Amino acid sequence: MPTAADSFFMPSTSVPAVKLSPAVNGLTSLMLMSKHEHYPGVDGWVTKTWANMTAAQQHTTRLVLEGLYYAVVPEGQPESFAAYVADLAQQPPSRLRDRLFDAYARIPRLDGQSAEPVRATLLGSFDAFISYLSARFPEAFIDLSIEREAHLLLNDPAAMQTVVVSYLHGMWRDVLEDEWQRVKPMLQASVAAFAATDFSAMSKLEAAQFVTGQVPDGKWRQWFELADSLTFVPSAHVGPYLHKVNHQANGRSHLHLIFGARVPDGVSIDSPELDRSELLVRLNAVADDTRLRVLKLLAEEGELCAPDIMARLALSQSATSRHMRQLSANGLISERRQEGAKCYRLNQERIESTILAFRRFLLEDF
């Protein structure tokens, strides 16, 4: 698998909540490993762990987290990652395949058409399967070698279940369990910091802004609008980015929004680990010569569009996109579109709050 407006209010029966959600947390960390090159600024544990994995582990991570992702999305709120894996092991193998195809069917086609081949056709022809994916995902999101292996497993659900369960069980035992015990107190502190928040009068977008400290971009509008329930999940690894995990159950859509663990503005809580983690995310964004030069250039010019930044700093388009994405995700710059190009300005308030957070951290420590 290739992997909002203020008027969108949550139904009164489904008020947002902030929860640990260990299954969603663990799966997100694994997903970040398989996609880490697209997310500069994720926690160093992610890139370090990926580098220490064998080639076989890396391949299976991509197979499960890209080719078979929708078959393993957690349903409900498993009490632990181990319970989540045990549930996958107990389900009929065909159920995992159905979950994947049901999820694909809910994704709108890029061309807006509605005619679809029957499932037997998709299973019987790899070309038909790829054509089906291409109608939903940009070409850059589709890895033919991964999808070919996934297609073979979809035709053998028992083998697919064995691969998935064995992989997740092994990753929990060898990689995730110790890390979860290390970061769990910090994540619990983040959850506790939001415990007194009354979300009932907030729109989905307002709740997301309050919890994440960011203004989610336009793509979140449709996800918020379609979600029947919204759960915020603090992560130790996602860095400045927002990630979503969505599943359907009993005709209802359940959206998990994963954010970098933090304390909301105006709330005081005694958690040095959480304070340090949030500060490291911000400082990591400026701990790079190119990004510092970008910030200095914007400070001098006021606003520049991407082509101007590329020319002034002799950067490639991909390098510029990567650096600007990390600065934007951290809120250090704001962006807008002008005649098809992205243009950027310094977010002076965010920069000043980062400096203040750094000073406060040092003063409290000394």
Question: What would a concise description of this structure say?
Answer:
The protein is of the alpha/beta class. The chain is built from 17 helices and 7 strands. Strand 3 and strand 4 form a beta hairpin.
- Percent helix: 55-70%
Quantity of strands, as a count: 7
Number of domain modules: 2
What characteristic shape results from the CA principal axes?
globular
Strand % is 5-15%
Distinct helical segment count: 17
Low-confidence stretches: 4-13
pLDDT averaged residue by residue: 88
What do these coordinates show?
The chain is of the alpha/beta class. It has 2 domains: 17-260, no CATH class; 288-365, Arc Repressor Mutant, subunit A, CATH 1.10.10.10. The protein has helices at 22-34, 44-52, 55-67, 69-72, 81-90, 93-106, 119-124, 126-134, 144-154, 157-193, 204-212, 220-226, 272-286, 289-301, 306-313, 317-329, 348-365; strands at residues 17-18, 229-235, 243-249, 252-260, 303-305, 333-338, 341-346. The strands form 2 sheets. A 4-stranded mixed β-sheet has the order 1-2-4-3. A 3-stranded antiparallel β-sheet has the order 5-7-6. Strand 3 (243-249) and strand 4 form a beta hairpin. Helix 3 packs across helix 9 (144-154), helix 6 (93-106) crosses helix 10 and helix 13 packs across helix 17 (348-365). The longest helix is centred in the middle third of the chain and has 37 residues, at 157-193. It starts with 16 loop residues before the first strand and ends with a helix.
